Amino acid sequence: MSRQSFSLLKSLGRIASGSKTQTRSVTYMPRPGDGKPRPVTLIPGDGVGPLVTNAVEQVMDAMHAPVYFEPFVVHGDMKSLPEGLLESIKKNKVCLKGGLKTPVGGGVSSLNVNLRKELDLFASLVNCFNLPGLASRHENVDIVVIRENTEGEYAGLEHEVVPGVVESLKFCSERIAKYAFEYAYLNNRKKVTAVHKANIMKLADGLFLESCQEVAKKYPSIAYNEIIVDNCCMQLVARPEQFDVMVTPNLYGNLVANTAAGIAGGTGVMPGGNVGAEYAVFEQGASAGNVGKDTTQEQKNANPVALLLSSAMMLRHLQFPSFADRLETAVKRVIAEGKCRTEDLGGNSTTQEVVDAVIANLD
Protein backbone atom coordinates (compact mmCIF):
# COMPACT_ATOMS: atom_id res chain seq x y z
CA MET A 1 0.00 0.00 0.00
CA SER A 2 1.38 3.43 -0.91
CA ARG A 3 2.05 6.05 1.74
CA GLN A 4 -0.55 8.31 0.08
CA SER A 5 -3.22 5.56 0.22
CA PHE A 6 -2.42 4.83 3.85
CA SER A 7 -2.72 8.53 4.69
CA LEU A 8 -6.11 8.66 2.95
CA LEU A 9 -7.37 5.65 4.92
CA LYS A 10 -6.25 7.30 8.16
CA SER A 11 -8.12 10.46 7.21
CA LEU A 12 -11.26 8.47 6.43
CA GLY A 13 -10.92 6.71 9.76
CA ARG A 14 -10.77 10.04 11.58
CA ILE A 15 -13.86 11.24 9.71
CA ALA A 16 -15.72 8.04 10.56
CA SER A 17 -14.73 8.29 14.22
CA GLY A 18 -16.32 11.74 14.35
CA SER A 19 -19.47 10.75 12.53
CA LYS A 20 -22.87 10.08 14.04
CA THR A 21 -22.36 6.33 13.83
CA GLN A 22 -19.87 6.57 16.69
CA THR A 23 -22.54 8.03 18.97
CA ARG A 24 -24.85 5.04 18.60
CA SER A 25 -25.31 2.70 21.52
CA VAL A 26 -24.57 -1.01 21.17
CA THR A 27 -26.82 -2.28 18.42
CA TYR A 28 -30.28 -3.59 19.15
CA MET A 29 -30.53 -7.05 17.65
CA PRO A 30 -34.18 -7.77 16.87
CA ARG A 31 -35.69 -11.17 16.49
CA PRO A 32 -36.86 -12.07 12.98
CA GLY A 33 -40.19 -10.38 12.41
CA ASP A 34 -39.78 -7.74 15.15
CA GLY A 35 -40.02 -5.01 12.49
CA LYS A 36 -43.61 -5.94 11.67
CA PRO A 37 -45.96 -2.98 12.35
CA ARG A 38 -47.77 -3.35 15.67
CA PRO A 39 -51.40 -2.40 16.25
CA VAL A 40 -52.01 0.05 19.13
CA THR A 41 -55.45 0.82 20.53
CA LEU A 42 -56.08 4.57 20.51
CA ILE A 43 -58.43 6.49 22.82
CA PRO A 44 -58.43 10.17 21.74
CA GLY A 45 -60.50 11.09 24.82
CA ASP A 46 -62.12 14.36 25.86
CA GLY A 47 -61.18 18.04 25.58
CA VAL A 48 -57.73 18.44 24.08
CA GLY A 49 -57.26 14.68 23.94
CA PRO A 50 -57.98 14.35 20.20
CA LEU A 51 -55.62 17.27 19.54
CA VAL A 52 -52.62 15.74 21.32
CA THR A 53 -53.25 12.16 20.19
CA ASN A 54 -53.39 13.46 16.62
CA ALA A 55 -50.01 15.09 17.27
CA VAL A 56 -48.60 11.67 18.13
CA GLU A 57 -50.15 10.15 15.00
CA GLN A 58 -48.52 12.81 12.81
CA VAL A 59 -45.07 12.31 14.34
CA MET A 60 -45.33 8.52 14.13
CA ASP A 61 -46.27 8.84 10.48
CA ALA A 62 -43.36 11.21 9.81
CA MET A 63 -40.93 8.74 11.41
CA HIS A 64 -42.48 5.81 9.54
CA ALA A 65 -42.72 4.14 12.95
CA PRO A 66 -43.84 0.50 12.76
CA VAL A 67 -47.14 1.07 14.56
CA TYR A 68 -50.70 1.71 13.44
CA PHE A 69 -53.67 2.80 15.51
CA GLU A 70 -57.11 1.31 16.14
CA PRO A 71 -59.19 4.29 17.39
CA PHE A 72 -62.18 4.09 19.74
CA VAL A 73 -64.51 6.94 20.66
CA VAL A 74 -64.62 7.13 24.45
CA HIS A 75 -65.90 9.97 26.62
CA GLY A 76 -65.70 10.31 30.38
CA ASP A 77 -69.45 10.78 30.80
CA MET A 78 -70.23 7.38 29.27
CA LYS A 79 -71.80 4.94 31.69
CA SER A 80 -69.51 2.12 30.62
CA LEU A 81 -66.58 1.36 28.34
CA PRO A 82 -67.70 1.05 24.71
CA GLU A 83 -68.11 -2.36 23.16
CA GLY A 84 -64.95 -3.76 21.62
CA LEU A 85 -62.51 -1.49 23.46
CA LEU A 86 -61.29 -4.01 26.03
CA GLU A 87 -61.09 -6.72 23.37
CA SER A 88 -58.89 -4.43 21.25
CA ILE A 89 -56.52 -3.65 24.11
CA LYS A 90 -56.32 -7.30 25.15
CA LYS A 91 -55.49 -8.24 21.56
CA ASN A 92 -52.96 -5.45 21.00
CA LYS A 93 -51.54 -5.44 24.55
CA VAL A 94 -50.85 -1.69 24.24
CA CYS A 95 -53.03 1.44 24.24
CA LEU A 96 -52.34 5.17 23.81
CA LYS A 97 -54.85 7.38 25.56
CA GLY A 98 -55.86 11.03 25.76
CA GLY A 99 -57.47 12.46 28.88
CA LEU A 100 -60.97 11.43 29.96
CA LYS A 101 -63.14 13.70 32.08
CA THR A 102 -64.02 12.17 35.44
CA PRO A 103 -67.51 13.09 36.68
CA VAL A 104 -67.61 14.56 40.19
CA GLY A 105 -70.25 12.87 42.36
CA GLY A 106 -73.57 11.79 40.92
CA GLY A 107 -72.85 8.07 41.10
CA VAL A 108 -71.14 7.89 37.67
CA SER A 109 -67.94 5.86 37.96
CA SER A 110 -64.65 6.94 36.43
CA LEU A 111 -63.87 5.21 33.15
CA ASN A 112 -60.18 5.79 33.89
CA VAL A 113 -60.54 3.68 37.02
CA ASN A 114 -62.71 1.10 35.24
CA LEU A 115 -60.08 0.67 32.54
CA ARG A 116 -57.32 0.11 35.08
CA LYS A 117 -59.41 -2.41 37.00
CA GLU A 118 -60.57 -4.36 33.96
CA LEU A 119 -57.01 -4.69 32.65
CA ASP A 120 -55.41 -4.98 36.10
CA LEU A 121 -53.05 -2.09 35.37
CA PHE A 122 -51.80 -2.10 38.94
CA ALA A 123 -48.79 0.20 38.47
CA SER A 124 -48.93 3.85 37.44
CA LEU A 125 -45.62 5.46 36.49
CA VAL A 126 -44.90 9.18 36.08
CA ASN A 127 -41.42 10.44 35.18
CA CYS A 128 -40.85 14.01 36.40
CA PHE A 129 -37.56 15.51 35.22
CA ASN A 130 -35.94 18.77 34.14
CA LEU A 131 -35.89 19.38 30.40
CA PRO A 132 -32.84 21.37 29.20
CA GLY A 133 -33.90 24.87 28.22
CA LEU A 134 -37.12 24.82 30.26
CA ALA A 135 -36.87 27.03 33.32
CA SER A 136 -38.06 25.55 36.64
CA ARG A 137 -37.65 26.35 40.30
CA HIS A 138 -35.30 23.43 40.90
CA GLU A 139 -32.47 21.76 39.00
CA ASN A 140 -31.35 18.12 38.97
CA VAL A 141 -34.90 16.83 39.29
CA ASP A 142 -35.35 13.30 37.93
CA ILE A 143 -38.08 11.56 39.90
CA VAL A 144 -40.10 8.49 39.00
CA VAL A 145 -43.34 8.17 40.96
CA ILE A 146 -44.76 4.64 40.99
CA ARG A 147 -48.16 4.30 42.61
CA GLU A 148 -50.52 1.43 43.22
CA ASN A 149 -53.29 1.89 40.68
CA THR A 150 -56.17 -0.43 41.50
CA GLU A 151 -56.76 -0.26 45.25
CA GLY A 152 -57.22 2.32 48.01
CA GLU A 153 -59.27 5.52 48.19
CA TYR A 154 -58.60 6.71 44.66
CA ALA A 155 -59.84 3.43 43.19
CA GLY A 156 -63.37 4.13 44.40
CA LEU A 157 -63.45 1.20 46.84
CA GLU A 158 -65.93 2.78 49.21
CA HIS A 159 -69.42 2.18 50.54
CA GLU A 160 -71.94 3.72 52.92
CA VAL A 161 -72.09 1.63 56.08
CA VAL A 162 -75.10 3.48 57.52
CA PRO A 163 -76.62 6.75 56.36
CA GLY A 164 -74.01 9.46 56.80
CA VAL A 165 -71.11 7.06 57.41
CA VAL A 166 -68.90 6.26 54.40
CA GLU A 167 -66.07 3.75 54.65
CA SER A 168 -63.16 3.68 52.19
CA LEU A 169 -61.39 0.34 51.77
CA LYS A 170 -57.63 0.21 51.36
CA PHE A 171 -55.60 -2.92 50.75
CA CYS A 172 -51.88 -3.28 50.36
CA SER A 173 -50.20 -5.24 47.65
CA GLU A 174 -46.67 -6.56 47.63
CA ARG A 175 -46.62 -6.45 43.85
CA ILE A 176 -46.34 -2.64 43.67
CA ALA A 177 -43.27 -2.78 45.90
CA LYS A 178 -41.79 -5.52 43.69
CA TYR A 179 -42.47 -3.48 40.58
CA ALA A 180 -40.84 -0.34 42.04
CA PHE A 181 -37.64 -2.16 42.97
CA GLU A 182 -37.56 -4.07 39.71
CA TYR A 183 -37.97 -0.79 37.82
CA ALA A 184 -35.13 0.78 39.83
CA TYR A 185 -32.89 -2.23 39.19
CA LEU A 186 -33.55 -2.38 35.43
CA ASN A 187 -33.16 1.39 34.97
CA ASN A 188 -30.00 1.78 37.09
CA ARG A 189 -31.77 3.84 39.73
CA LYS A 190 -30.09 4.16 43.10
CA LYS A 191 -32.84 4.69 45.68
CA VAL A 192 -36.46 3.80 46.38
CA THR A 193 -38.51 5.91 48.81
CA ALA A 194 -41.78 4.57 50.23
CA VAL A 195 -44.37 7.31 50.85
CA HIS A 196 -46.89 6.55 53.59
CA LYS A 197 -49.06 7.75 56.47
CA ALA A 198 -48.42 4.80 58.77
CA ASN A 199 -48.29 7.08 61.81
CA ILE A 200 -52.09 7.40 61.43
CA MET A 201 -53.09 4.57 59.04
CA LYS A 202 -51.26 2.07 61.20
CA LEU A 203 -52.74 -1.11 59.75
CA ALA A 204 -53.18 -0.32 56.07
CA ASP A 205 -50.09 1.81 55.51
CA GLY A 206 -48.22 -0.27 58.07
CA LEU A 207 -48.76 -3.31 55.87
CA PHE A 208 -47.65 -1.30 52.82
CA LEU A 209 -44.37 -0.49 54.57
CA GLU A 210 -43.87 -4.10 55.65
CA SER A 211 -44.20 -5.16 52.01
CA CYS A 212 -41.68 -2.55 50.88
CA GLN A 213 -39.24 -3.52 53.62
CA GLU A 214 -39.39 -7.20 52.71
CA VAL A 215 -38.84 -6.54 49.00
CA ALA A 216 -36.00 -4.08 49.75
CA LYS A 217 -34.00 -6.91 51.36
CA LYS A 218 -33.80 -8.62 47.96
CA TYR A 219 -32.18 -5.55 46.36
CA PRO A 220 -29.20 -4.72 48.60
CA SER A 221 -27.61 -2.49 45.93
CA ILE A 222 -30.61 -0.12 46.00
CA ALA A 223 -30.93 2.27 48.93
CA TYR A 224 -34.33 2.28 50.66
CA ASN A 225 -35.96 4.83 52.90
CA GLU A 226 -39.43 5.88 54.06
CA ILE A 227 -41.16 9.24 54.40
CA ILE A 228 -44.55 10.38 55.71
CA VAL A 229 -46.64 11.86 52.91
CA ASP A 230 -47.06 15.35 54.38
CA ASN A 231 -43.32 15.67 55.02
CA CYS A 232 -42.78 14.25 51.53
CA CYS A 233 -44.74 17.11 49.95
CA MET A 234 -42.74 19.67 51.93
CA GLN A 235 -39.45 18.00 50.96
CA LEU A 236 -40.52 17.88 47.30
CA VAL A 237 -40.92 21.64 47.07
CA ALA A 238 -37.79 22.28 49.15
CA ARG A 239 -35.24 19.69 47.94
CA PRO A 240 -36.71 17.50 45.18
CA GLU A 241 -33.26 16.39 44.01
CA GLN A 242 -33.06 14.04 47.02
CA PHE A 243 -35.70 11.72 45.49
CA ASP A 244 -35.13 9.07 42.85
CA VAL A 245 -37.86 6.40 42.64
CA MET A 246 -40.89 6.88 44.88
CA VAL A 247 -43.41 4.12 45.57
CA THR A 248 -46.79 5.04 47.01
CA PRO A 249 -50.30 3.81 47.73
CA ASN A 250 -52.94 5.03 45.28
CA LEU A 251 -54.17 8.36 46.61
CA TYR A 252 -50.81 9.66 47.84
CA GLY A 253 -49.20 8.85 44.51
CA ASN A 254 -51.64 10.99 42.56
CA LEU A 255 -50.87 13.99 44.78
CA VAL A 256 -47.11 13.39 44.84
CA ALA A 257 -46.86 12.90 41.07
CA ASN A 258 -48.67 16.14 40.29
CA THR A 259 -46.57 18.03 42.83
CA ALA A 260 -43.35 16.64 41.35
CA ALA A 261 -44.55 17.49 37.84
CA GLY A 262 -45.24 21.09 38.82
CA ILE A 263 -41.76 21.40 40.29
CA ALA A 264 -40.01 19.99 37.21
CA GLY A 265 -41.77 22.01 34.52
CA GLY A 266 -45.51 21.35 34.52
CA THR A 267 -47.93 18.55 33.76
CA GLY A 268 -47.77 19.33 30.04
CA VAL A 269 -44.29 17.83 29.66
CA MET A 270 -44.34 14.81 32.00
CA PRO A 271 -44.76 11.35 30.43
CA GLY A 272 -46.28 8.32 32.05
CA GLY A 273 -48.32 5.20 31.73
CA ASN A 274 -50.10 2.36 33.47
CA VAL A 275 -48.90 -1.21 33.32
CA GLY A 276 -49.91 -4.65 34.50
CA ALA A 277 -48.67 -8.17 33.91
CA GLU A 278 -50.15 -8.29 30.39
CA TYR A 279 -51.25 -4.84 29.20
CA ALA A 280 -50.03 -1.25 29.16
CA VAL A 281 -51.83 2.07 28.63
CA PHE A 282 -49.68 5.13 27.94
CA GLU A 283 -50.97 8.65 28.60
CA GLN A 284 -49.92 12.03 29.94
CA GLY A 285 -48.12 11.32 33.19
CA ALA A 286 -49.51 13.90 35.61
CA SER A 287 -53.28 14.20 35.43
CA ALA A 288 -54.01 17.73 36.65
CA GLY A 289 -56.01 19.49 33.95
CA ASN A 290 -55.30 16.71 31.48
CA VAL A 291 -58.40 17.44 29.37
CA GLY A 292 -57.55 21.14 29.15
CA LYS A 293 -59.56 24.32 29.37
CA ASP A 294 -62.22 25.13 26.79
CA THR A 295 -60.12 28.04 25.50
CA THR A 296 -57.14 25.73 25.01
CA GLN A 297 -59.28 23.42 22.94
CA GLU A 298 -60.76 26.28 20.90
CA GLN A 299 -57.39 27.94 20.24
CA LYS A 300 -55.76 24.57 19.51
CA ASN A 301 -52.73 25.35 21.63
CA ALA A 302 -52.63 22.29 23.90
CA ASN A 303 -49.16 21.08 24.79
CA PRO A 304 -48.44 17.73 23.06
CA VAL A 305 -45.03 17.20 24.68
CA ALA A 306 -46.19 14.95 27.54
CA LEU A 307 -48.03 12.56 25.23
CA LEU A 308 -45.19 12.60 22.69
CA LEU A 309 -42.76 11.57 25.43
CA SER A 310 -45.26 8.97 26.65
CA SER A 311 -45.40 7.58 23.14
CA ALA A 312 -41.59 7.32 23.20
CA MET A 313 -42.01 5.21 26.33
CA MET A 314 -44.56 3.16 24.40
CA LEU A 315 -42.10 2.60 21.55
CA ARG A 316 -39.50 1.29 23.99
CA HIS A 317 -42.15 -0.95 25.52
CA LEU A 318 -42.81 -2.31 22.01
CA GLN A 319 -39.04 -2.88 21.58
CA PHE A 320 -38.50 -0.13 19.03
CA PRO A 321 -35.69 1.70 20.88
CA SER A 322 -34.28 3.55 17.88
CA PHE A 323 -37.63 5.15 17.08
CA ALA A 324 -38.08 6.03 20.75
CA ASP A 325 -34.67 7.72 20.86
CA ARG A 326 -35.37 9.70 17.69
CA LEU A 327 -38.69 10.96 18.99
CA GLU A 328 -37.38 11.85 22.45
CA THR A 329 -34.34 13.61 21.01
CA ALA A 330 -36.47 15.68 18.64
CA VAL A 331 -38.82 16.77 21.44
CA LYS A 332 -35.92 17.75 23.68
CA ARG A 333 -34.35 19.76 20.86
CA VAL A 334 -37.55 21.74 20.38
CA ILE A 335 -37.78 22.47 24.11
CA ALA A 336 -34.09 23.43 24.30
CA GLU A 337 -34.34 25.81 21.32
CA GLY A 338 -37.22 27.60 23.03
CA LYS A 339 -38.64 29.01 19.80
CA CYS A 340 -41.78 26.89 19.71
CA ARG A 341 -43.68 26.54 22.98
CA THR A 342 -47.33 26.46 23.95
CA GLU A 343 -48.89 28.92 26.37
CA ASP A 344 -48.36 26.74 29.46
CA LEU A 345 -44.60 26.92 28.82
CA GLY A 346 -44.59 30.68 28.32
CA GLY A 347 -44.96 30.73 24.54
CA ASN A 348 -47.74 31.35 22.04
CA SER A 349 -47.36 28.40 19.67
CA THR A 350 -50.21 26.17 18.60
CA THR A 351 -50.19 22.41 18.99
CA GLN A 352 -49.61 22.04 15.25
CA GLU A 353 -46.63 24.39 15.31
CA VAL A 354 -45.01 22.26 18.03
CA VAL A 355 -45.71 19.12 16.02
CA ASP A 356 -44.16 20.67 12.90
CA ALA A 357 -41.08 21.67 14.90
CA VAL A 358 -40.69 18.17 16.33
CA ILE A 359 -40.98 16.63 12.86
CA ALA A 360 -38.39 19.10 11.52
CA ASN A 361 -35.98 18.00 14.27
CA LEU A 362 -36.28 14.28 13.64
CA ASP A 363 -33.00 12.64 12.64
Automatic annotation (TrEMBL):
Q: Which residues form the Isopropylmalate dehydrogenase-like domain?
A: 39-358
Q: Where is this region: Disordered?
A: 18-40
Keywords attached to this entry: Magnesium, Manganese, Metal-binding, Mitochondrion, NAD, Oxidoreductase, Transit peptide, Tricarboxylic acid cycle
Source organism lineage?
Eukaryota, Viridiplantae, Streptophyta, Embryophyta, Tracheophyta
Q: Which Gene3D superfamilies match?
A: Isopropylmalate Dehydrogenase
Keyword match Oxidoreductase: yes
Q: Which GO terms describe its cellular component?
A: mitochondrion
User: In which organism is this protein found?
Assistant: Eutrema salsugineum (Saltwater cress)
A single Gene Ontology biological process assigned to it is: isocitrate metabolic process
Highest taxon of the lineage: Eukaryota
Task: Tell me if Glycoprotein is a UniProt keyword of this record.
Answer: no
Instruction: Kindly list the GO molecular function terms attached to this UniProt entry.
Output: isocitrate dehydrogenase (NAD+) activity; metal ion binding
- Which InterPro entries does this UniProt record tie to the protein? Isocitrate_DH_NAD, IsoPropMal-DH-like_dom
Query: Where does this protein reside within or beyond the cell?
Result: Mitochondrion
The cross-references to Pfam families, in alphabetical order and at most eight, read:
Iso_dh (PF00180)
Q: What does this protein do?
A: Performs an essential role in the oxidative function of the citric acid cycle.
The family assignment reads: Belongs to the isocitrate and isopropylmalate dehydrogenases family.
- What name has this protein been given in UniProt? Isopropylmalate dehydrogenase-like domain-containing protein
